[in-house]
Amino acid sequence: MNIFESNHDLEEKEQALSQQVHALEVTRKRYYFAQLAARIKDPDTYAVLNWSFIGGFHHLYLGRYGLFLGEIFLLIVAITTISLGITSGWFIIGLLVLFELPQLFFSQKIVRQYNYSVSTKILCEAREKPLVEQ
């Protein structure tokens, strides 16, 4: 995900994807929209998880397990070092805050990019999957 991608570029990609979806045959469209409804994420939920819970739980929402584990590990290290009186724990906390703030401020774009990626994968599935008309 690139938080510096322009909104215009993202909108163009989403529009092109939408045109490809509308070109699908009816059965494949049904599959696409059923899968999309099940797998798409809400930007507000991501932002609330980022704002409310310390430790990167918003990464779990998007399935970024490595980032979550890295952040929770650093948070545990920071809390442990602070509780032992070592001031470098505050430095780790500061780094975590600097890493998380852009994710909070750009949460709408991050989730739009995630949803675009998921939508593209679903479109590929819909094109390749042998579907039976119902």
Strand percentage lies at: under 5%
Uncertain stretches: none
* Mean pLDDT across residues: 91
| Radius of gyration of CA atoms, rounded to a whole number | 19 Å
SSE layout and pairings?
Blueprint (H helix, E strand, L loop, with lengths): L6 H16 L3 H14 L3 H10 L4 H5 L3 H19 L4 H18 L1 H22 L6
Helix pairs in contact: 1-7, 2-7, 3-6, 3-7, 5-6
Task: Name a few traits of the molecule.
134 residues; mainly alpha; 7 helices
Describe this structure in words.
Keywords: Membrane, Transmembrane, Transmembrane helix. This protein is mainly α and 134 residues long. The chain has 7 helices and no strands. The protein has helices at residues 7-22, 26-39, 43-52, 57-61, 65-83, 88-105, 107-128. The protein is elongated and about 65 Å long. The two termini are 37 Å apart.
